[in-house]
Design a protein that fits this description.
- The chain is mainly alpha-helical.
- The protein has two domains: about 70 residues, Arc Repressor Mutant, subunit A; about 150 residues, Up-down Bundle (Four Helix Bundle (Hemerythrin (Met), subunit A)).
- The protein is built from ten helices and two strands; from the N terminus they run αααββααααααα.
- Strand 1 and strand 2 form a beta hairpin.
- The termini are far apart.
């Protein structure tokens, strides 16, 4: 096992424990010697893992106070590890509500800009992603991967450097939504024409139509999530590969 793997495993174990509530907000984490013994790793590995947790906003460190767990409001929810740990601990209604509200704020504005600024190369990339989604529905395959590329393509096509950076951070959050929607019977098939409507509006250079179309898509995803939550079926975990669709 490499040092990198040891660090990654230690970080995962501590991150999961914090997000799952084993170390509640405001509490102090065990001292280094205790963590070393519990996890079977060196002090160097523990220290590096704690540094990573600090960077992700989960803990703070200081002289005489040790390592304290910060409240969830201060965690970096754009960090894929934090999102994955929350998925493993259980996707809460609050988390999913926050995600949907974020999408409603960011994506409509980005799609409006995409309809005004998208290049031929941008549109070709989004078309390719849509074709991948369609093929996954009809022949089986990784629908979620292509769905992510579709939305990342839209954010990239707005040609706003900050939104492009945000698209990278949003990927884990968007995957959460897409994984859940995919668990609904015929969810991907029913969403295809909604995605097509967004793409067609961007191609037509119609910002208002594009915004309306993406809102329909986002609200449909919210309804899918509510239905899955109401069914009490197990929610997908983001540390496993996306489920592949079967051929129609």
């Amino acid at each position: 096992m490499t040092i990198k793997n040891v660090h990654g495993n230690t970080l995962d174990l501590l991150g999961k424990a914090i997000v799952a509530g084993r170390y509640p907000p405001g509490s102090s984490m065990p001292p280094e010697p205790m963590l070393c013994e519990e996890l079977g790793v060196s002090r160097t590995v523990v220290r590096e893992a704690v540094k990573s947790l600090v960077a992700k906003g989960l803990v703070s460190t200081g002289p005489k106070v040790g390592t304290r767990v910060l409240p969830p409001q201060q965690w970096n929810w754009f960090d894929p590890d934090v999102v994955a740990w929350q998925s493993q601990a259980g996707l809460t209604r609050e988390f999913l509500r926050d995600l949907q509200e974020l999408r409603r704020v960011v994506e409509p504005a980005a799609v409006r800009m995409a309809a005004q600024r998208a290049t031929d190369e941008d549109i070709a990339a989004i078309e390719e992603a849509f074709a991948g989604m369609k093929k996954a529905v009809e022949e089986g395959g990784d629908y979620v991967l292509h769905d992510l590329r579709f939305h990342q393509g839209l954010l990239s096509a707005c040609h706003n450097r900050m939104l492009v950076q945000m698209s990278k951070a949003l990927s884990a959050l968007l995957r959460t939504s897409f994984e859940i929607s995919t668990t609904r019977k015929d969810g991907p098939r029913n969403s295809l024409p909604l995605h097509r409507a967004v793409l067609d509006a961007v191609i037509a250079r119609d910002p208002e139509r594009a915004e309306r179309a993406i809102l329909v898509l986002i609200d449909g995803a919210r309804e899918d999530i509510e239905a899955v939550l109401a069914s009490r079926r197990p929610l997908p975990k983001l540390d496993t590969p996306s489920p592949l669709l079967r051929a129609a």
